[in-house]
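Help! Submission page says 'invalid entity' but I think these are all valid:
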Amino acid sequence: MATRTHLTIILVLLVSVTVLSWYLGTGGGAHPTAPNLAISAAVLFIALFKVRLIMREFMDVGTAPAWVRRTSSAWLVLFFAALFVVHFTVTGN
Amino acid sequence: MTTAVTTANEASGVGTANFNDGDSPPLRAVDHGAMWVYIVGDLFIFGGWFVFYLVYRASEQTIFAESQAHLNQTFGLFNTIVLLVSSWLVAMCVNAARASRYNEAARYAWLTILCGAVFAATKLYEWRSRIAEGRSFTSNDFFMFYYFLTAIHLFHVLCGFIVLGVLLRNLQVSALRAQVVIENCAAYWHMVDLLWVVIFALVYLLR
């Protein structure tokens, strides 16, 4: 667990990328429905980044037992890889 | 000023350490034990549902895109920020508890509960709005997933209130205080937050 300042910096970073993700996904509030490969990739990468940050900085996974570090990393890799594969190959966007 | 401090419960695995006043001690996290098993198990279950969602989305792209446009993404953004702030509050709570600042930790825990209540109220209002528009669980596969994923997540939020209640009791009753329980409860709430982060991306924003 880090210092209060460090935790607050992480929060600001998380909120900032969340707003960026919302802006990209909604086209700045225009709500377009057309598929967009680049925006979908950005939204998924931002989600992956946020989940990793929450695990590392808030949940203290970095100092958790080795099996937790390995399993949580495996979850991130496995499911985000699956999400990317399904969305970009099966969907064919 | 550097102070030697023994944390609340050495049996929890968190021992004596040196740290600066106002900051958290540079300690390792306690071993969450069974809570990690539950969290990892839940992550895999949700992960499976997320993949199923995208498989369905792939086969019904037009329906999913048109239905998604009827969601309120601004509500989704608000909910996400509320849960991120609540996660930060829980981290600050653990930080304060590790430094034996239990009154401060309890204030963070109360604010976390408040954030959870705001999230739940916003979610119920959002459902009510969609249902009033005639978009229910049975409207199409997109709304089936939307209600299912958000409902099962909201159930976790409601369970989180019980978990946060346990955390508060541990902070407020010194005889019950155990750092491992405080950190287990915090870890559960972080899991609730990170699951919503993925739901927001997949259901509200993906194009």
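Support: the input was valid. A stray whitespace character was the problem, and the output above is from the cleaned input. Chain A touches chain B through 54 residues (CB under 8 Å).
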